[in-house]
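QUALITY CONTROL LOG
STEP: pairwise intake check
CHECKER ROLE: data steward
CRITERIA: each record must contain a sequence immediately followed by its structure tokens, with no blank fields

ENTRY 1 OF 2
RESULT FIELD BELOW
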Amino acid sequence: MTYSRIDRINELIKETLAEIIQEEAEISPGVFLTVVKVDTSRDLRYARVFVSVFPERKFQKTIDLLRKKIYSIQGTLNKKLHMKPLPRIEFVADKTEVEADKIEKLLKEIK
């Protein structure tokens, strides 16, 4: 399977951001944050970073923390990536797990 340039960039940003968040963000103990996917625009100016947080009730607090530290995270990302232009990141909720859980519960109710 061949990957396009944008796919390789998305994977690079995903891995790099996961490391940066682990080092810089002060995530509460017992909260698991996962960088699920990165979707970079074709012109490489913007990158949407989809994150998942467990437990779900801690999501808003965690995403607020990430948004508060976005300038620090963006600065570190810019230093680690050797490319131009450098994409501007935006954190977005990944609700795939929550939706899958809802569907699974509905299917169990039907049985």
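ENTRY 2 OF 2
RESULT FIELD BELOW
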Amino acid sequence: MAFDEALTLRMRAALGDGPDISEKRMMGGVCFFQDGNMVCGADRSKEGERRFMFRVGKGNETAADLPQGTPMFLGDQPMPGFYFVDGDCCDDDLLQRWLDVALSHARSLPPK
């Protein structure tokens, strides 16, 4: 995975700059946190695919019904509760819908 500046800027703008939001370079891209809990990220795959990543929680049916989401895998292992969304097919409205689900999950967790 590699850093994608344009997607990172879009994600940063969509999240806003509240005191409970932070970011960290990790996994080759940038991940964003709410009160220390991972919410989302932005990166570019080895194949060059520009993508957003969202942590929505295991068994989240709302996320499974959102368009453009692809379950995330680490090698051959599924990562329950994590989805990739193609950054080139994700307009601002869809980005906000995915963020709302991911933020809702993060806010349901205790702060770290």
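INTAKE CHECK: passed for both entries
DESCRIPTIVE NOTE, ENTRY 2: The mean pLDDT is 93.
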